[in-house]
Amino acid sequence: MLKRIFTRVIAAAILFSGSFLGAAPAAFAQTAGCGGSSLQGHNPEKLKATLKEMSTNDPAVIDRNFKDYTQLVEHWRSITPGQDNPTAQLFEDALNFWREKKAHEETGGMVDVQAGRRWASYLQKQIDEMDQGIIGSWNWWNGYTVTFNANGGATYRGSSLVRSGVGRWQKTGGNSYRVHWLSSNTNDIFTLSADGMKLEGTYDGKPGVSTRKC
Questions:
Q1: Are residues 174 and 97 part of one domain?
Q2: Alpha-carbon span 120 to 214, nearest angstrom
Q3: How many CB atoms within 10 Å of residue 161?
Q4: Same-domain status, 68 and 102
Q5: Domain count across the chain
Q6: Which tens digits make up the pLDDT trace of 105-152?
């Protein structure tokens, strides 16, 4: 039951803090990522759907979310009793939002909806960060550090200044990208993973995987 709730309702709940990792339920599988771990389900479309659903006035949707978040919060409280857990606080804000939304609907608008700002802000922040695509710094497949800028510029840095250079990157469709390195006149072609943490493809014709630098 919890697995269904986590998958449908809180696929948006990705890595938030060390305490999250320490208490992560078995319903989530951990994978390599920033700080050594990430959580599967780090999906921008699910995040957007979760945020969009907060604007619904459908009684059935409101009731469903209220029940699901109630069980979710009860689960977090059971595995982190008496702890000041940031993740549990986020879920509790979401639960309070759906509780107030349900009361607002049932009383014909007599109850104001004030909760949910923290949860919505968290979701939007994750969406904004993921919408950046490959922008940021990466641990390149060959041990270098590569940085992609918003203006289409790219730089790489090796163990010395001599092993540094510049290039230009472009999105070729979907989650696929291409970068041309000017100094070496070579091309890297890769695909951004769904969780935004890996670039897998061919680097100067050689297969490889690069990971996001945190």
A1: no
A2: 24
A3: 7
A4: yes
A5: 2
A6: 999 999 999 999 999 998 898 787 777 889 999 999 999 999 999 899
